[in-house]
Write a structure and sequence with these properties.
- Strands 1-7-4-5-6-3-2 form a seven-stranded antiparallel sheet. Strands 8-9 form a two-stranded antiparallel sheet.
- It is 35% helix and 31% strand.
- The chain has 170 residues and is an alpha+beta fold.
- It folds into two domains: 86 residues, Elongation Factor Tu (Ef-tu), domain 3, CATH 2.40.30; 64 residues, no CATH class.
- It has six helices and nine strands.
């Protein structure tokens, strides 16, 4: 399908900034699609090479285009701003993690049947999100702290990790 170009306001849902993608616009991108839709997106013409992300179903045929912090910073935009959006389906998307699993995390998961079982129960997009988060950390100390947190929540401890409250490994 062709690229969509439109202006839209950035809204907030809970703590998540997003752009609403109407059912008619979604239908033009990929008719009949109801699952997360991999897309390439540019906000205000930035970046030169579009970001890869997923549109998330809204339940009414429309989708949410959630804007992570790097997108908003690079595009110099925030909630309430009206922005120019360029959007197209990512036909080169392949499922599965893009970022590799850090060795220390892999070793600790394999050493704990409970944590490994809970990791496998996570939906693939959550696993990818965690691995992407680990890859974005700048220091070994930050990575070690966050691997510790991930292990605690995967072992079933009630705790906040990655802006979510976890309970029973989910």
């Amino acid at each position: 399908m062709a690229e969509q170009q439109f202006a839209a306001a950035i809204r907030i849902r809970g703590v998540n900034p997003y752009i609403a993608i109407s059912a008619s616009r979604a239908k033009a991108l990929k008719p009949g699609w109801r699952r997360p839709l991999p897309v390439l997106v540019r906000i205000g013409g930035i970046p030169r090479d579009p970001w890869r992300t997923n549109l998330m179903p809204a339940g009414n045929g429309g989708f949410y285009l959630y804007l992570h912090e790097r997108m908003r910073r690079a595009s110099n935009c925030g909630v309430g701003n009206r922005v120019e959006v360029q959007l197209r389906v990512d036909h080169h998307y392949t499922g599965g993690p893009i970022n590799s699993m850090p060795a220390g995390f892999s070793d600790r998961l394999n050493a704990s049947a409970t944590a490994l079982r809970n990791w496998k129960k996570l939906v693939p997009s959550r696993q990818k999100e965690i691995l992407r988060y680990f890859a974005s950390l700048k220091s070994d100390a930050a990575r070690a702290r966050n691997v510790d947190r991930a292990m605690r929540v995967l072992l079933g401890r009630r705790e906040r990790f990655m802006a979510r409250s976890w309970k029973d490994g989910r």
